[in-house]
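Below sits the subject:
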Amino acid sequence: MLIQGMEGLVIRRASVADAPAVLQIFDEVIAWFVATGNHGQWGTEPWSAIPRRVAQAEQACAMPDAWVVEDCEGRLHAALVLGDSVAYVPAATEPEVYVRWLIVGRDARVRGLGRRLLAFAEDRARAAGVSRLRVDCYAGGTGELVSFYESCGYARISTFDLEGWPGQLLGRSL
């Protein structure tokens, strides 16, 4: 499927074979975080060098509602994984679509892609007859990530601490 307003970008289902490219996106973003002083969100090591993170990427890409965005040259720029909520947040009280992963590379040509992928998640929820989405994110640092989700229509539900990692759970009704 073409991504409206983003010339040459296509969203397609992910597969385990996409995991190395998805890890490259994480590595790119982590390098940018480190350069900007954000060591708390995902640490300072490239995910591709951490066996646990490699396994997580493979598992995520194999999920039935995992998606990647690629350009006409086959380069991946983003990944979106939807599914059941994660164990460290309160269980859903109604049917939902949970945004498990949303990662977008730093390429200036894909600016705004995160918002478009959240809109895609909303479309997936509507198609499934679900009117609720939730997502969790890093709540430390400057709080910019929480603000990003709020600017996309998500509201704060609760905070949590995952072994010293401050998190924010957010939700949106359609």
The chain has one domain: 10-131.
